[in-house]
């Protein structure tokens, strides 16, 4: 049924017909008899080998304690299956080899919207509306950023009150992020975790990380756009809950945040939600139905 040593001559299954993501950790991704397997405990007396349906998933996420063989990379590349090295439950995103998916519709749509100044500001306004709960009438990006900045200050204060945290304002020393007080440390680490989840979502839909609608200079501008959509309800909740836990246990803040982020990501299905949100802000339903895209937010 599989031609060739690794089955490299078989036809690919379109990503539209595949399932989403599969998490693997503490084992080796390898090829056995032309099929992809994940081997756990290979050095023990009772190793286990799970066959991975690589043609039926869009992306494999390799967590801590994992390795991958050259043959496995060749097989994944041939069938267009993405792979990324991540932290536990996607709280970090380390690398994703350029195994391109079989469709470019999301990337083309993103470039189309980004390339038109009018459409670009329309997407930015849509993102701000999702965050702020209202459609702002302004069409100048600097004005929108200013309004968002003042709203965020109020959100920090309200969330701190909700969790019973003493709040003295947002401070961030990029040269020494652990020099700040515990709430600011927690926000720094939580933001990193949420950005990792956003990076996974952007990679999964094959969007273009560099083409942000609100952020501009970063090579991960669109990742930062997506992460910001979850700042109020996810990032700050993770951060302030971690502060409460750290105050009780005395654990290092980074470790507490990672554990809390992993719990929230699982409970709230954060990465699948981000994938859906990307398609929403890029108005992929209009592409699917052949609708015009001259509408404004």
UniProtKB/TrEMBL annotation:
Alphabetized UniProt keyword annotations: Antiviral defense, DNA-binding, Endonuclease, Hydrolase, Magnesium, Manganese, Metal-binding, Nuclease
Pfam families for the chain: Cas_Cas1
Coiled-coil intervals, chain numbering: none
The protein's required cofactors:
Mg(2+); Mn(2+)
Biological process GO terms, please?
A: defense response to virus; maintenance of CRISPR repeat elements
- InterPro entries, per database record: Cas1 (IPR050646), CRISPR-assoc_Cas1 (IPR002729), CRISPR-assoc_Cas1_C (IPR042206), CRISPR-assoc_Cas1_ECOLI (IPR019851), CRISPR-assoc_Cas1_N (IPR042211)
So what EC number does this one have?
3.1.-.-
Q: Which domain of life is it from?
A: Bacteria
Q: Which GO terms describe its molecular function?
A: DNA binding; DNA endonuclease activity; hydrolase activity; metal ion binding
**Nuclease is among the record's keywords:** yes
Q: Among its keywords, does the record have Repressor?
A: no
Q: Detail which positions bind Mn(2+).
A: 148, 215, 228
Gene3D superfamilies from the entry? CRISPR-associated endonuclease Cas1, C-terminal domain (1.20.120.920), CRISPR-associated endonuclease Cas1, N-terminal domain (3.100.10.20)
Tell me which PANTHER family the record gives.
CRISPR-ASSOCIATED ENDONUCLEASE CAS1, CRISPR-ASSOCIATED ENDONUCLEASE CAS1 1
Quaternary structure annotation from Swiss-Prot or TrEMBL: Homodimer, forms a heterotetramer with a Cas2 homodimer.
The function of this protein is: CRISPR (clustered regularly interspaced short palindromic repeat), is an adaptive immune system that provides protection against mobile genetic elements (viruses, transposable elements and conjugative plasmids). CRISPR clusters contain spacers, sequences complementary to antecedent mobile elements, and target invading nucleic acids. CRISPR clusters are transcribed and processed into CRISPR RNA (crRNA). Acts as a dsDNA endonuclease. Involved in the integration of spacer DNA into the CRISPR cassette.
Q: Which family does it belong to?
A: Belongs to the CRISPR-associated endonuclease Cas1 family.
From the Swiss-Prot or TrEMBL record, give the protein name.
CRISPR-associated endonuclease Cas1
* Native source organism of the sequence: Limnohabitans curvus
């Amino acid at each position: 049924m599989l031609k060739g040593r690794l089955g490299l001559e078989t036809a690919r299954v379109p990503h539209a017909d595949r399932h989403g993501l599969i998490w693997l950790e503490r084992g080796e991704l390898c090829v056995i008899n032309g099929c992809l397997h994940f081997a756990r405990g290979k050095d023990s007396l009772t190793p286990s080998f799970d066959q991975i349906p690589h043609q039926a998933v869009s992306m494999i996420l390799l967590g801590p304690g994992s390795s991958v063989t050259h043959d496995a990379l060749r097989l994944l590349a041939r069938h267009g299956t993405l792979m990324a090295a991540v932290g536990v439950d996607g709280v970090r995103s380390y690398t994703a080899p350029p195994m391109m998916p079989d469709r470019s519709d999301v990337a083309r749509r993103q470039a189309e919207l980004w390339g038109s100044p009018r459409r670009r500001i329309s997407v930015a306004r849509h993102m701000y509306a999702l965050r702020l709960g209202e459609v702002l009438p302004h069409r100048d990006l600097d004005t929108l950023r200013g309004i968002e900045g003042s709203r965020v200050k109020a959100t920090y204060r309200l969330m701190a009150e909700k969790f019973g945290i003493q709040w003295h304002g947002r401070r961030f020393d990029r040269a020494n992020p652990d020099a700040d007080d515990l709430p600011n440390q927690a926000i720094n680490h939580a933001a990193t975790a949420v950005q990792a989840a956003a990076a996974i979502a952007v990679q999964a839909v094959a969007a273009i990380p560099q083409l942000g609608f609100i952020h501009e200079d970063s090579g991960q501008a669109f990742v930062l756009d997506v992460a910001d959509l979850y700042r109020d309800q996810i990032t700050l909740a993770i951060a302030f809950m971690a502060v409460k836990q750290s105050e009780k246990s005395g654990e290092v803040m980074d470790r507490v945040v990672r554990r809390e982020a992993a719990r929230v990501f699982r409970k709230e299905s954060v990465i699948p939600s981000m994938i859906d949100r990307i398609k929403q802000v890029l108005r992929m339903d209009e592409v699917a139905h052949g609708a015009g895209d001259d509408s404004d937010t």
